[in-house]
Specification:
Elements (H helix, E strand, L loop, with lengths): L7 E5 L6 H12 L5 E5 L5 H9 L8 E5 L4 H9 L6 E5 L22 E4 L1 H9 L9 E6 L8 H8 L8 E6 L24 E6 L3 E2 L6 E2 L4
Parallel strand pairs: 1-2, 2-3, 3-4, 4-5, 5-6, 6-7, 7-8
Antiparallel strand pairs: 9-10
Length: 219
């Protein structure tokens, strides 16, 4: 394919990634001066995520959004080759959040100012940045599965990774009653939100499981 002028590519479907089409998709992306790339609900398995990003390089990429099925290692390797990324979002899906205990080489992204994602993924990304202090905006997504205890407390713990935070947005993506236990704070623990501005929003109007409270959608 000839080079194109495509600067933004967004896909929220797996329709462009089956074997007969994926080569065409890669060629389109490979020959484009992308600044924004969004790949969600692709249905890609771990090896395919690796192959996809290994074959792509965008010198001017500033915004990257993928779903949380993309392995942390693959994201970090991609970021190593895209030092101009400023906005990074890891979109949640319906699967339980993973634990990220492995350690990989640190990544230097001097212009990165925003990270969005599930708490554990966002924290893991922050721990692998050489300069986490550049992050001034953090968006945390809370989803239906699973419902861990003290979920809100763990979200605030995530802010400890980013000492330069200014804005924090916590969004509840729950579509069913929220267990009250997930909103409690441990009595023996002091929870601090390291940000100047904190917003909480909800995609749907949902009640807690004891019907003592309701979170009203702000969307």
């Amino acid at each position: 394919l000839m080079s194109s002028q495509l600067e933004s590519f967004s896909a929220d479907t797996n329709a462009i990634f089956p074997p007969p089409i994926i080569r065409f998709t890669i060629n389109v992306l490979h020959n484009s001066p992308l600044k924004e790339l969004c790949l969600k609900n692709t249905g890609l398995c771990t090896p395919m995520w690796g192959k996809l990003f290994h074959s792509l390089h965008f010198p001017h990429l500033q915004t990257l959004e993928v779903d949380s099925q993309c392995p942390l290692k693959v994201i970090l390797e991609c970021l190593c080759r895209h030092h101009h990324v400023e906005y990074l979002d890891i979109a949640p899906n319906s699967l339980p959040e993973q634990q990220y205990r492995a350690w990989y080489p640190l990544v230097e992204l001097p212009g990165l100012c925003h990270i969005g994602g599930l708490p554990a993924y966002a924290s893991a990304l922050g721990r692998h940045l050489q300069n986490p202090g550049t992050i001034t905006s953090l968006s945390i997504f809370m989803i239906d599965v699973p419902f861990p205890h003290n979920q809100l407390s763990s979200v605030l713990d995530c802010t400890d990774v980013f000492p330069g935070l200014y804005n924090v947005l916590i969004t509840f993506h729950h579509s069913q009653p929220i267990p009250t236990s997930s909103l409690l704070f441990p009595s023996s623990k002091a929870c601090i939100c390291r940000a100047q501005h904190l917003r909480m929003a909800c995609r749907f109007s949902v009640v807690t499981d004891d019907n003592n409270g309701i979170l009203v959608s702000s969307y």
